Amino acid sequence: MTEQKATNVFWHDGEVTREDRFGLLKQKGATLWFTGLSGSGKSTVAVELEKQLLMQGKLAYRLDGDNVRLGINKNLGFSADDRKENIRRVGEVSKLMADAGMIVLNSFISPYIADRDIVRELHAKGDLDFIEVFVDCSLNEAEKRDPKGLYKKARAGEIKNFTGIDDPYEAPANPEVHLHSDTMSLQEEVDILMAALAKRGII
Amino acid sequence: MTEQKATNVFWHDGEVTREDRFGLLKQKGATLWFTGLSGSGKSTVAVELEKQLLMQGKLAYRLDGDNVRLGINKNLGFSADDRKENIRRVGEVSKLMADAGMIVLNSFISPYIADRDIVRELHAKGDLDFIEVFVDCSLNEAEKRDPKGLYKKARAGEIKNFTGIDDPYEAPANPEVHLHSDTMSLQEEVDILMAALAKRGII
User: Fold this and answer.
1) pLDDT for A86-119, tens place per residue?
2) First-to-final CA distance of chain A
3) Interface of B with A in 95-154 (CB under 8 A)
4) pLDDT of A135-185, one tens digit each?
5) 3 state SS of B60
6) B149-156: long-range contacts at Cβ-Cβ below 8 A with a sequence spacing of 24 or more?
7) Which of A172, A191, B75, B106 is the 20 to 30 Å CA partner of A138?
8) Surface-to-core class of residue A129, CB atoms within 10 Å of its CB (0-12 exposed, 13-18 middle, 19+ buried)
């Protein structure tokens, strides 16, 4: 038999539970869902939050278009059905990772309320925290930033169905956290998120 | 700014890296893929390994038909194409979880070499450890155990395309770990797996 090393883990009969994992990590698994326009700063705040969580010894993981579109969702395009399936799969992956104990940080434009609510519902059924973070930024400001030059292309008609230009963005009616990225500093945003995590006993 | 609590985490510029997460957890993320006949004991050894890892303070997570077929793969059936997509998605989820730092324990019959090799390839490309664990058990013994009564149904023709009866099982030619569940004790199996993890610096 192997030696008992982790002092915060208690032996019990039966299979390892979610609570065992949360106890080991000294955190609760949860999903934070950053939604907002392209260029609103979703990834910027997720990257900074991840860093400051790590400095506190908390384990987070980011999912975004980069590691999802090339992997689990590589057989999906941009039709309405595919976009919905894209978000559904990300939701299921997040749920597994949160159950495993991770603080999952998802950055997706995810413009439709119905799709985001599917992920919310998945987590509710799994008795896992789901925190919708509305990264609110005026279209004017997002378009001015245009970090990837996408608004310019959309205005020129080179990209079709671009959220905010010729496709709608449905803002959350009641997000758990509402950030105003065009007026708040990055550290203010992180502080608000840290407080929201602490309030729910996630960290 | 938040306080630096984790002494094994070092500050650096830029985004959080895989190495940061592995350092925090004091383990390397990796995927163990348990393959073998129905009734061979794949889940039994995965459950026991998970428990003994937890007792050493190591974070593991199990993926199997139960949490995958009802979630990320709920829109997949049992056709050849769907089986292949089923394994592919599990492979992609495992890769994300291993990158996050988890020791992922997958129990799937996964009868085809080509499908398992897709997952192996995914991990190789991502520079992540992939350990194929062949849970070897004679058909005779697996059928005698028949924990879910499935062999009986397959012999009676009530289930079609059942692996080992009217569908082939392609044994791994060169698995990283080869367990003989019909002759080894459960603890012997776990000890072999622990040694394999230690040898690769995963634990």
Assistant:
1) 899 999 999 999 999 999 999 999 999 999 999 9
2) 32
3) 95-97, 99-102, 122
4) 999 999 999 999 999 999 999 999 988 999 989 999 999 999 999 999 999
5) strand
6) B150/B38, B150/B39, B151/B38, B151/B39
7) A191
8) buried
- CATH number, domain A26-199, options 3.40.50.10490, 3.30.230.70, 3.40.50.850, 3.40.50.300: 3.40.50.300
Name the band, by pLDDT with cuts 50, 70 and 90, for residue B136. very high
Return the active site residues of A. Answer: 110
Q: Please report residues of A whose CB lies closer than 8 A to that of B75.
A: 85
* Domain range summary for chain A, segments of one domain joined by +: 26-199
Residue A40, both tokens: 């609103």
Q: Each residue of A32-53: pLDDT tens digit?
A: 999 999 999 999 999 999 999 9
Catalytic residue among B38, B40, B94, B110: B110
Residues in CB range of A80: below 8 A, 6 or more apart: none
Task: Look up the ipTM and state it.
Answer: 0.91
Q: Which residue from B4, B59, B72 is facing A93, i.e. has the nearest CB?
A: B72
Structure token pair of residue A177: 């956290």
The residue that leads in pLDDT, A171 or A6, is A171
Superfamily classification of domain B21-199:
P-loop containing nucleotide triphosphate hydrolases (3.40.50.300)
CA distance A115 to A111: 8
